[in-house]
Design goal:
globular, about 5% strand, 7 helices, two-stranded antiparallel ribbon, mainly alpha
Protein backbone atom coordinates (compact mmCIF):
# COMPACT_ATOMS: atom_id res chain seq x y z
CA UNK A 1 0.00 0.00 0.00
CA UNK A 2 1.53 3.29 -1.15
CA UNK A 3 0.71 6.86 -0.17
CA UNK A 4 0.67 7.55 -3.94
CA UNK A 5 -2.39 5.32 -4.31
CA UNK A 6 -4.59 7.91 -2.61
CA UNK A 7 -4.19 9.97 -5.77
CA UNK A 8 -4.26 7.09 -8.23
CA UNK A 9 -7.46 5.49 -6.89
CA UNK A 10 -9.53 7.92 -4.82
CA UNK A 11 -10.33 10.54 -7.52
CA UNK A 12 -11.35 7.80 -9.97
CA UNK A 13 -13.78 6.32 -7.44
CA UNK A 14 -15.18 9.80 -6.79
CA UNK A 15 -15.58 10.44 -10.51
CA UNK A 16 -17.57 7.23 -10.96
CA UNK A 17 -19.88 8.15 -8.07
CA UNK A 18 -18.48 5.61 -5.60
CA UNK A 19 -17.79 8.20 -2.94
CA UNK A 20 -18.26 5.74 -0.08
CA UNK A 21 -15.49 3.57 -1.52
CA UNK A 22 -13.33 6.64 -2.14
CA UNK A 23 -13.68 7.63 1.51
CA UNK A 24 -12.96 4.04 2.60
CA UNK A 25 -9.73 4.04 0.58
CA UNK A 26 -8.58 7.23 2.30
CA UNK A 27 -9.48 5.75 5.68
CA UNK A 28 -7.54 2.55 4.98
CA UNK A 29 -4.43 4.39 3.83
CA UNK A 30 -4.69 6.78 6.74
CA UNK A 31 -4.94 3.95 9.26
CA UNK A 32 -1.76 2.29 7.98
CA UNK A 33 0.39 5.18 6.80
CA UNK A 34 -0.53 8.35 8.69
CA UNK A 35 1.54 9.33 11.72
CA UNK A 36 -0.70 11.33 14.04
CA UNK A 37 2.32 12.74 15.87
CA UNK A 38 3.83 14.42 12.82
CA UNK A 39 0.75 14.69 10.62
CA UNK A 40 2.72 13.08 7.77
CA UNK A 41 2.31 9.90 5.74
CA UNK A 42 4.86 7.13 5.49
CA UNK A 43 5.60 6.03 1.94
CA UNK A 44 4.62 2.36 1.93
CA UNK A 45 2.95 -0.41 3.96
CA UNK A 46 3.64 -4.13 3.46
CA UNK A 47 0.33 -5.97 3.90
CA UNK A 48 1.96 -9.41 3.96
CA UNK A 49 4.22 -8.49 6.88
CA UNK A 50 1.70 -6.15 8.50
CA UNK A 51 4.21 -3.36 8.92
CA UNK A 52 5.64 -0.28 7.26
CA UNK A 53 7.99 -1.21 4.44
CA UNK A 54 9.15 2.36 3.82
CA UNK A 55 8.41 4.43 6.92
CA UNK A 56 10.04 7.66 5.73
CA UNK A 57 7.70 10.60 4.99
CA UNK A 58 8.41 10.89 1.26
CA UNK A 59 7.54 14.40 0.14
CA UNK A 60 5.91 13.37 -3.11
CA UNK A 61 3.89 10.68 -1.35
CA UNK A 62 2.43 13.25 1.03
CA UNK A 63 1.76 15.49 -1.95
CA UNK A 64 -0.14 12.70 -3.68
CA UNK A 65 -2.32 12.28 -0.59
CA UNK A 66 -3.45 15.90 -0.36
CA UNK A 67 -3.74 16.32 -4.13
CA UNK A 68 -5.74 13.10 -4.39
CA UNK A 69 -8.20 14.21 -1.75
CA UNK A 70 -8.46 17.68 -3.31
CA UNK A 71 -9.16 16.25 -6.75
CA UNK A 72 -11.69 13.76 -5.42
CA UNK A 73 -13.59 16.52 -3.62
CA UNK A 74 -13.61 18.51 -6.85
CA UNK A 75 -14.85 15.60 -8.99
CA UNK A 76 -17.81 14.60 -6.81
CA UNK A 77 -20.35 16.63 -4.91
CA UNK A 78 -22.47 13.82 -3.40
CA UNK A 79 -20.54 12.53 -0.38
CA UNK A 80 -21.94 10.66 2.66
CA UNK A 81 -22.96 12.99 5.49
CA UNK A 82 -19.95 14.67 7.08
CA UNK A 83 -17.46 12.91 4.80
CA UNK A 84 -16.60 15.91 2.64
CA UNK A 85 -15.76 18.02 5.69
CA UNK A 86 -13.74 15.17 7.21
CA UNK A 87 -11.69 14.66 4.06
CA UNK A 88 -11.13 18.39 3.61
CA UNK A 89 -10.01 18.73 7.21
CA UNK A 90 -7.58 15.85 6.85
CA UNK A 91 -6.12 17.30 3.65
CA UNK A 92 -5.62 20.64 5.40
CA UNK A 93 -3.94 18.86 8.32
CA UNK A 94 -1.44 17.04 6.10
CA UNK A 95 -0.84 20.13 3.99
CA UNK A 96 -0.04 22.16 7.10
CA UNK A 97 2.26 19.42 8.42
CA UNK A 98 4.19 19.34 5.14
CA UNK A 99 4.69 23.11 5.06
CA UNK A 100 6.82 22.91 8.19
CA UNK A 101 9.54 21.36 6.02
CA UNK A 102 9.59 23.99 3.27
CA UNK A 103 13.12 25.18 2.63
CA UNK A 104 14.47 28.63 1.86
CA UNK A 105 13.99 28.13 -1.90
CA UNK A 106 10.32 27.26 -1.41
CA UNK A 107 10.82 23.55 -2.14
CA UNK A 108 11.06 20.48 0.10
CA UNK A 109 13.55 17.73 0.87
CA UNK A 110 12.74 14.54 -1.02
CA UNK A 111 12.22 12.93 2.41
CA UNK A 112 10.51 15.68 4.32
CA UNK A 113 12.24 15.24 7.66
CA UNK A 114 15.68 14.55 6.15
CA UNK A 115 17.29 17.81 4.97
CA UNK A 116 20.19 15.77 3.58
CA UNK A 117 18.01 14.47 0.74
CA UNK A 118 17.80 16.46 -2.50
CA UNK A 119 15.49 19.44 -2.94
CA UNK A 120 12.47 18.06 -4.79
CA UNK A 121 10.10 20.20 -6.88
CA UNK A 122 7.03 18.05 -7.49
CA UNK A 123 6.09 18.05 -3.81
CA UNK A 124 5.61 21.82 -4.09
CA UNK A 125 3.46 21.39 -7.20
CA UNK A 126 1.23 18.79 -5.56
CA UNK A 127 0.81 20.82 -2.38
CA UNK A 128 0.24 23.99 -4.39
CA UNK A 129 -2.42 22.27 -6.48
CA UNK A 130 -4.19 21.05 -3.34
CA UNK A 131 -4.07 24.44 -1.60
CA UNK A 132 -5.36 26.31 -4.65
CA UNK A 133 -8.06 23.72 -5.34
CA UNK A 134 -9.17 24.08 -1.72
CA UNK A 135 -9.45 27.84 -2.17
CA UNK A 136 -11.28 27.52 -5.50
CA UNK A 137 -13.73 24.95 -4.11
CA UNK A 138 -14.30 26.64 -0.77
CA UNK A 139 -12.87 24.17 1.72
CA UNK A 140 -9.81 26.31 2.41
CA UNK A 141 -10.02 30.03 3.16
CA UNK A 142 -8.74 32.60 0.63
CA UNK A 143 -5.70 33.20 2.85
CA UNK A 144 -4.28 29.95 1.41
CA UNK A 145 -4.08 31.49 -2.08
CA UNK A 146 -0.68 33.10 -1.55
CA UNK A 147 0.79 29.90 -0.15
CA UNK A 148 -0.43 27.86 -3.09
CA UNK A 149 0.81 30.41 -5.62
CA UNK A 150 4.22 30.59 -3.93
CA UNK A 151 4.57 26.80 -4.02
CA UNK A 152 3.86 26.69 -7.74
CA UNK A 153 6.24 29.59 -8.37
CA UNK A 154 9.03 27.78 -6.53
CA UNK A 155 8.58 24.71 -8.72
CA UNK A 156 8.29 26.83 -11.87
CA UNK A 157 11.79 28.12 -11.26
CA UNK A 158 12.93 24.57 -11.98
CA UNK A 159 11.44 24.52 -15.50
CA UNK A 160 14.21 24.29 -18.10
CA UNK A 161 14.34 25.70 -21.62
CA UNK A 162 12.63 22.58 -22.96
CA UNK A 163 9.65 23.05 -20.62
CA UNK A 164 10.64 20.18 -18.34
CA UNK A 165 10.16 20.46 -14.58
CA UNK A 166 13.59 19.42 -13.32
CA UNK A 167 14.78 18.33 -9.89
CA UNK A 168 11.78 16.11 -9.25
CA UNK A 169 11.80 12.48 -8.17
CA UNK A 170 12.80 11.14 -11.55
CA UNK A 171 11.24 8.40 -13.62
CA UNK A 172 11.46 5.48 -13.87
CA UNK A 173 12.59 4.52 -10.36
CA UNK A 174 12.01 7.85 -8.55
CA UNK A 175 15.12 7.27 -6.44
CA UNK A 176 16.91 10.49 -7.36
CA UNK A 177 16.45 13.87 -9.03
CA UNK A 178 15.37 13.97 -12.65
CA UNK A 179 12.20 14.52 -14.68
CA UNK A 180 8.94 12.59 -14.94
CA UNK A 181 5.63 12.60 -16.82
CA UNK A 182 3.90 12.91 -13.44
CA UNK A 183 5.68 16.17 -12.67
CA UNK A 184 4.76 17.56 -16.08
CA UNK A 185 1.10 16.71 -15.47
CA UNK A 186 1.22 18.26 -12.00
CA UNK A 187 2.61 21.48 -13.45
CA UNK A 188 -0.43 21.76 -15.73
CA UNK A 189 -2.87 20.80 -12.97
CA UNK A 190 -1.31 23.39 -10.69
CA UNK A 191 -1.57 26.18 -13.25
CA UNK A 192 -5.23 25.35 -13.90
CA UNK A 193 -5.92 25.41 -10.15
CA UNK A 194 -4.12 28.74 -9.87
CA UNK A 195 -6.46 30.26 -12.45
CA UNK A 196 -9.57 28.91 -10.71
CA UNK A 197 -8.44 30.10 -7.30
CA UNK A 198 -7.44 33.54 -8.60
CA UNK A 199 -10.91 33.99 -10.07
CA UNK A 200 -12.54 33.10 -6.75
CA UNK A 201 -10.29 35.43 -4.74
CA UNK A 202 -10.80 38.28 -7.23
CA UNK A 203 -14.57 37.82 -7.17
CA UNK A 204 -14.55 37.97 -3.38
CA UNK A 205 -12.85 41.38 -3.58
Amino acid sequence: MWADTVYMVVPLLALTGRTELAAAQVAGHRRRLHDVRTGLYAARWDADRGELDRPQPWGTGNGWVVAGIARALRLASDWPAGTRAELAGHAAEVLTACLRYRTDDGLFPDVLDDPGTFREANTAQLLGYAALTGVADGWLPPSWFDTGAELLAAAARRVDRYGRVTGVSGAPDFAGPGTSPEAQACFLLGQAALGRARAVVSAAG
